[in-house]
Specification:
about 475 residues, mainly beta, Methylamine Dehydrogenase, Chain H, 5-stranded antiparallel sheet
């Protein structure tokens, strides 16, 4: 007789390493959000080398004028050294780990003596920062390549990055770095406006313009992106624009109707509900399943009702009203970098519902959920995480909400978009840096051990002096 054994779905196990890493320099873990100044986690980019021997943690010096990259021993999450300082970099926005070094996406001011340099101002007396990729090997800089600014796509308009909101990925198959980041143009047809750019750089540090993949200006007033490597360019990319939608724009590299409309969102004053985290939040929102062509994406949304014509953009574009006050967390699955599983978002003018296609991780309305991220364990399971305010005050129609923090939640899902079990809740861990899958399938990320407050603007913390730390914590999630 043959006995059939039914597979049992796994559950989650959380392990924490509070204050495990001593930082050489002070770090301010709180960043003010766009428009509201409500607190966000300041991103600490994190990556682990392919051989699993070295982790790299990047963090901004508390004085705001230099990024430090600390080497870490992954099994213990303790300092390994030697550490690297990249001076005059205003923010770290993504890191890629190699066996003997790393590449980092950051931004730095261009000297005023440079031709076609960006304008300076009160906030940037040395010049407005421009994004660049920095490649280090064995503790020494091998090259630095600017991916915007003077001489970069000059015919389309020169751009800068005063807020380094973006991400950096590497494809071993394509031997290319991909950088996706928010820009402001200071010359050209889009001067004074916000958009985003996708650029590719090879391992020698050469900027490559790739037809159908590189893009100097994609999604209007984009304050959040999602980006993941593919075997060949274009890499998988998602944007939230200010005309009412979230797009899988791998194929279109922008916000054209040639892309795949994932979701309808209310957009007001250049905001879209901080769908991918808003300021300092464009990381670990899109992940590729191990040894697979499929991807998973997560975001925060108020849903969409009452679709009306977007007369500014024309046919195929609509505006939407919010369905809920507090945000919910959603997820979408993609069979490959260009194809969404299931229905796309509606573009029907007059439709009363614009979110019927959404797969909700948190179906109930009422609480506000934010800081949504995702990482994969293997080819079958993924981890979706978010923060909650049980009784939120959502005074801004398309921005974040305030209120008492009531927990970080970790939900196990599978590669078909099904939730498995109930979410695990934690009151003292947060996702404040990249979620990295180790060789053994464990997912780890950095955070700062602190009393997380979401009920007042950043100024209410008393300034950087009260939030500065020289300790970093880590958390890891495994399947059992």
């Amino acid at each position: 007789m043959v006995v059939l054994v039914t597979a049992v779905d796994p559950s989650l196990k959380l392990k924490t390493y509070p204050d495990i890493l001593n930082l050489q320099w002070p770090f301010d873990p709180v960043k003010a959000s766009y428009w509201t100044n409500l607190p966000h986690h300041r991103r600490t980019p994190f990556a682990v080398s392919p051989d699993g021997q070295t982790g790299y943690l990047a963090y901004l010096d508390a004085n705001g004028t230099g990024v430090h990259v600390q080497h870490i021993h992954p099994p213990s999450m303790t300092s390994k050294g030697p550490d690297v300082t990249i001076p005059k970099v205003y923010e770290a926005a993504g890191i890629v780990a190699h066996n003997h070094g790393f590449a980092l996406l950051g931004n730095e001011p261009i000297p005023s003596t440079t031709s076609d340099d960006p304008p300076s101002g009160t906030d940037y007396p040395e010049g407005t920062p421009v994004p660049a990729i920095y490649r280090y090997a064995n503790g020494k800089q091998q090259w630095k390549t600017f991916v915007a600014g003077p001489g970069v796509h000059a015919d389309d308009g020169l751009s800068m990055a005063p807020d380094m909101n973006g991400d950096l990925v590497w494809s071993d198959d394509a031997q290319l770095y991909g950088a996706y980041f928010v820009v402001t143009d200071y010359e050209g047809w889009a001067k004074g406006h916000f958009g985003d750019s996708i650029e590719y750089v090879n391992d020698n540090g050469t900027l490559e313009t790739i037809e159908g993949a590189s893009n100097s200006w994609g999604c209007s007033h984009n304050t959040g992106i999602a980006f993941e490597a593919a075997d060949q360019p274009p890499f998988a990319s998602i944007c939230a624009e200010d005309q009412g939608a979230i797009w899988l724009n791998t194929k279109g590299t922008g916000m054209s109707t040639g892309g795949v409309k994932i979701s309808k969102e209310n957009t007001t004053n250049g905001g879209g509900g901080e769908a991918m985290g808003g300021m300092s939040g464009s990381y670990s929102s899109l992940a590729r399943f191990i040894n697979s062509t499929s991807y998973i994406f997560t975001w925060a949304s108020r849903g969409a009702t009452d679709l009306t014509e977007n007369t500014w953009m024309g046919e195929g574009y609509t505006n939407a009203a919010n369905r809920t006050n507090g945000r919910r967390v959603a997820m979408a699955m993609f069979s490959d970098k260009e194809t969404k599983v299931g229905a796309v978002a509606s573009s029907e003018v007059g439709a009363t519902s614009g979110d019927e296609q959404v797969n909700w991780v948190t179906p109930t309305a009422g609480p506000d959920r934010s800081n949504a991220h995702v990482a994969v364990f293997d080819d079958q399971y993924a981890l979706v995480t978010y923060e909650e305010i049980a009784e939120p005050s959502c005074d801004f129609i398309a921005m974040g909400c305030g209120g008492t923090f009531t927990g970080t939640y970790y939900q196990l899902v599978d590669n078909t978009g099904n939730k498995i079990g109930q979410p695990l809740k934690s009151m003292d861990t947060y996702v404040a840096g990249d979620m990295v899958t180790l060789a053994n399938g464990t997912i780890c990320w950095p955070y700062v051990k602190m009393a997380w407050q979401l009920d007042q603007a950043v100024g209410g913390y008393g300034g950087a002096a009260e939030t500065t730390t020289k300790k970093m914590s880590f958390a890891c999630m495994s399947l059992v």
